[in-house]
């Protein structure tokens, strides 16, 4: 939640694709969100406590810690366990289908209007982190 009435909601974008980070940041910033970025799961874990986001948009497939592994680490930490997370993906695969009931998904190739609508819906009614371990997501 914002620190003061009327304060911009904070979103942390996590993706190893710089172009996607730039596009998502532009869409969200122009809608009034305060946006921070991280280029890896490891970097997300380093900056999340300083950013204190209201929402994390997390790439599924990244080198090093992937999205589900990063989400599991966030869920295991009392300071970050309740931050809502939306997974962003290039395509919905059979493995990703297993997570559909546990976590909202965004297609990286959604129209900007659809992307923003999904984010706004989550911000209006946050989904609490349900992923408790990497075992909830099998490749």
Summarize the structure.
By secondary structure, this protein is of the alpha/beta class.
List keywords for this structure.
single chain, 139 residues, alpha/beta, Rossmann fold, five-stranded parallel sheet, 5 helices, 17% strand, globular, disordered C terminus
Structure overview:
There is one protein chain. The protein has 5 helices and 5 strands; from the N terminus they run E-H-E-H-E-H-E-H-E-H. It has 139 residues and is an alpha/beta fold. It has one domain: Response regulator (Rossmann fold), CATH 3.40.50.2300. The longest helix has 13 residues.
The rough form would be described as: globular
Q: In the residues, how many domains can be counted?
A: 1
Average the pLDDT over all residues and give the rounded result.
Answer: 81
Q: What is the radius of gyration computed over CA atoms, rounded to a whole number of angstroms?
A: 14 Å
Strand content: 15-25%
Low-confidence stretches: 128-139
Q: Output the CATH homologous superfamily.
A: Response regulator
Instruction: Order the strands across the largest sheet as they lie in space.
Output: 2-1-3-4-5
Query: The CATH topology is what?
Result: Rossmann fold
Number of strands: 5
Element pattern in H and E: EHEHEHEHEH
- What distance separates the N and C termini? 33 Å
Structural class: alpha/beta
CATH architecture: 3-Layer(aba) Sandwich
How would a textbook summarize the main sheet?
Answer: 5 strands, parallel
Summarize the amount of helix as a percent range. 25-40%
**Broad CATH class:** Alpha Beta
